[in-house]
Structures are given as structure tokens and as C-alpha cells.
Amino acid sequence: MTMAEKIKIIPLGGFDKIGMNMTLIESESSIIAIDCGTSFPPDNIPGVAAMIPDVSYIRENIDRFKGIVLTHGHEDHIGALPYIAGDLKAPVYGTPLTIAMAEKKLRDFGIRGVKTRAIKFGATIVAGDFKIEFIKTNHSIPDSSMLAIYTSQGIILHTGDFKVDMTPVVGQTGDITRLAALGTKGVLAVLSDSTNAMTEGFSKSEYHVYEQLDRFFNMYSNSRLIIVTFATNMDRIQQIINLARKYHRKIALEGKLMLDVLSVARKLGYVDMPEDVLADPEQLSEYDDGEVIFLTTGNHGESVQCISEIAAGSHPRIGIRKNDVVLFSSIAIHGSELEFNRTLNSLEEQGAKVEFQDLHATGHACAEELKLIYTILHPRFVIPAHGEYRYRREAKRIATEVGISPDNVFLIDNGDIVELDSESCTIKGELSLGDILIDGYEKSRIDTSIIQDREQLSESGVVIIEVCTDKKTGRLASGINIECRGFLDEKNFQALAEGLKDSISSEISRFIAQGVNDDRIRKGVEDLAREYISAKSGKNPLVIVLVTKVML
């Protein structure tokens, strides 16, 4: 490593939308990845559960890859680990809760052989050419950290997801003192959370959510409460536990993730839940409405999943009753707004009272908090991260307000290759990144051709053509059978099918006359059928041709 070398910053995700966070930091001989998350898939792609970063560049440079460093345990920062970490065979670093959640995720997918290491706040690890310091911050999950990455050219500070919360419910405030010390020492560049850059002022503390929850607990003391929140928000869950004890209610936990996260959090001391506050699942029907709380949760971004099942009447244990009170202590994450609104309407149609005013506190810094961080660190360069373009554009404006030159604030895209040294920062090219889609059922990568077939099926259906030929001569051995699903009604299809059969028969005869008796017949029939169907119907269904050869 030389003083003249350039340090590269290459985002593989997280710089065009919320989610799929993964950024590479690279020197001449080392590469590390910050986070490894999933995101919601593009709209209207059937059967796809998520997108993950394209890590082709890491594979091409695997000899220099030193590990994955995690900022916290939300899905958009650790969700891609099962699909990526197992192949890369590199260590994974993070704080204790983050690593516990990462290990659980890897176990669930049957991934073995990934080395993990839990790091305490204030500790520093060495990964290749880089030293990485874990700095405590506040977010909507415990053990969230900022990362100070020490390079040959200076300190790169990655904020992760953060807020400045001076009255957190669980744990302590973020380590502002350490950030101030780094600012005094000199920070080369900051990659900053931009999610709430367009929101003025300071974010609301988790402590203030308690006051509103308390008001609703008191107001609806005789009603059955169903509370919706994120499974990973231990501050929120601890407040609900405290209020349940205050109002002498039992808590019924709903959602596998809730049980998994709570088990880990209790072991690590992040939540205090006495056994006597939990409701007996076998005796739920025996509790009066004012004696029980149903706490429903899901992944960050999927907290509405369980309540959606309840609203639809498909939940095995809970159904909506008239005068139930549903407290939404969460928000619709980008990508789940339609499901969120559909659920709200369904609940109210069934007579439930829905409340969500002032029941959520964001986990992301607002405009004044960004000003504070930029002022404390006063970096030479700023790269707004984690969000759509307009969020990052606003973060740039905020940075310039506190005295950072507009020329030193960079709005980059996924795949951009940023090179910097102690004096300069420039964009020197880009990687070509593909969309890596994850099948919701197989928990594996899904080829784009499968997506194209699904889209075609959803738009125009499928036509299946069965042809039986003489193995020796290639001539038709029986009649041509044509079936369809989701294409045309029976009457119109039969009219089209009769004409198509004649065309197929003529096409097969043409091939035989040319001495062709191989797979070219199937391909020729398929091409002909597509053209014929499109010309006659104006539709483009998926066409499948099955050729069976028999001995006569």
C-alpha cells in the first residue's frame, strides 16, 4: 500500500432506492463490503420476493476480498447474506445482535462455513489494508453502528442508518463524543443516511411514542388491542411490555420473526420481558377484551404481513371483531404502500378502530440531525447514500448549508466507481450491474427468462401444442392437439385452433420434403404458431410445443 494509491468507493446497491444496501471500499490489495441487504423487487414481477446486489465484481477480485462489515440487522442490510456470503467464503463482522440475527438467517437457509465475529462498540478490527472502528449510534434496532474506516488516504465515515436520539428507551445515546473527536482529527469522506433529508427539524425520540401509546392504552382500556410494529424495534416492544404491565394486560406474540428476534434480544439483555406478562396461547379465548394485547410483527418492511392475514380472515388464531382497536406503531415502508392501505380499509370495514397518529418514531435522521453530523465531522467530501435521488439531492443541499463545497458533495449511482485520495475525489467509470432476483418460494436466484415467462403467462396465457410423428419418417402419426389456458374463450379458441392445425400440418410436410427430421421441426412449429396466433388474435401467449416420436 502506497501513499500515492487511490481509494475506491463502489456502491452495489442503496443509491437508487430504499434497500439493497451494499458498498465496496477498495485499495490496491484489499476490498471490503459494507452491508449486504435485500430490497423490494420492481413492481408487477410475479413470484419474486426480493432483489439482491450483483456481486460479480467481488467474484472477479475474490483474492482481494477481505470480508463483509454490517452496520445493523435490518433486512435491507443483512437480508442478502444467505445468497452471497456462502459463495464468497469471507468473514462477516458486526455488533452482537447484528451477528446473532445474521447467524440465524444463515442457519435458516442451511448455509454453513461462514465465519462470523461479534464486535463491541469502540473496538477496531483489521480487514486487509483497512482498520474499521465500530461507533455506537441510534436507530430503530439495537446495536446499530457507524463505521470509521481507516485508509491510507484518511478516514471514511459510513453512518449506516442513524438518528440522534437523546432519550432512547433501550441502551444509550449515540457516541457523539467519538464523532467529534474524529472530526477534530480529520475525516476524508462521509457516506451518510439520506432517507429523511427532506424532513425538516429533528426526528422524534422513541421516548415520546410512549406517551401516545399510554394515552391509547388508557382510552381503550376495555377493548381488545392489536398492535402492529416492527419485530426488530426493541425500543417500541419494550414500551409495549411496560405498558402491558402497567395496565395489567397479557401479551400474545404473533409472528415467527418476532419470536426469533425476541429470543435473541432477551439473551443479550436488550429487552426485559418477564414470563408472567406473556399470554398462554392455549387460553386466549378465556381472556376478556381488556386483558389481552396481540402484538403482531414481521420483517422491517413487512410488519403489515401478519395484520393483513388477520384482516383477510386467514389468520389461524385471530379474527377481527367489531370494536377491536388496531394500533399501527409502524409505517408503510417503500414498496408496501398498496398492501398497507388495503389492510387499513379491510380492518375498518369489519368494524375495527384503527389508530396510528403519533405512534411511530422514525429511525432515520432528519435535516437538522444531518446538519449536526456534517458540522461535527466536517469532512472534505460527502457522498449522500441510502435513498432515492431526491433524498440524496436534499442531503447535498444540507451539506452545503453547513459550509461544505458543492463541488465536494457527490450524487453517485449504483455501480459508479469513485476514486479519492487526501486531496481529490472523482468518478472514474462504472460497473455494469444486473438485476439479481430472488424467487419467493425456492429461496434461490431466479433467471430472468423465468420472469419473462411469468409475465407472458399473466398477460396472454399459454398455448400447448402436442404433435406425434413417426420416428423414422417424421410424418404425423396422429392428429394435432392444441390446448390453451388463460388465452381465449372456448368458441374463439376452437376457430383459431382449426386454422392453426392446418398450418402446422403444412409446415411439417415442408420440413419432411427437405429431409429434416430433428428438433428443427419443433422449433419451426413453435415459430409458426407464435406468428399465426399473434396475427389472428393480437395476443402473444407463451407457446409450448411437445413433439413425441413413435415407431410405427
For this entry, give a set of tags.
552 residues; alpha/beta; Metallo-beta-lactamase, Chain A; Rossmann fold; Ubiquitin-like (UB roll); 3 domains; 8-stranded mixed β-sheet; 6-stranded mixed β-sheet; 25 strands
Characterize the structure shown.
It contains 15 helices and 25 strands. An eight-stranded mixed sheet has the order 7-6-5-3-2-1-19-20, covered by helices on one side. It has a six-stranded mixed sheet with strand order 8-9-10-11-12-18, with helices on one face. A five-stranded parallel sheet has the order 14-15-13-16-17, sandwiched between helices. The model has no long low-confidence stretch (mean pLDDT 90). Helix content is 33%, strand content 24%. It is of the alpha/beta class. The protein has three domains: 7-201 and 363-445, Ribonuclease Z/Hydroxyacylglutathione hydrolase-like (Metallo-beta-lactamase, Chain A, 4-Layer Sandwich); 206-355, 3-Layer(aba) Sandwich (Rossmann fold), CATH 3.40.50; 450-550, Ubiquitin-like (UB roll) (Roll). It has helices spanning 56-60, 75-78, 81-88, 96-108, 176-185, 206-219, 234-246, 256-268, 304-312, 337-349, 367-377, 389-401, 448-460, 490-513, 519-537, and strands at 7-13, 22-26, 31-34, 48-52, 65-69, 92-94, 116-118, 124-127, 130-136, 145-151, 154-158, 189-193, 225-230, 250-254, 292-298, 325-328, 353-355, 381-385, 416-420, 425-430, 436-439, 445-446, 462-470, 481-485, 542-550. The N and C termini lie far apart (75 Å).
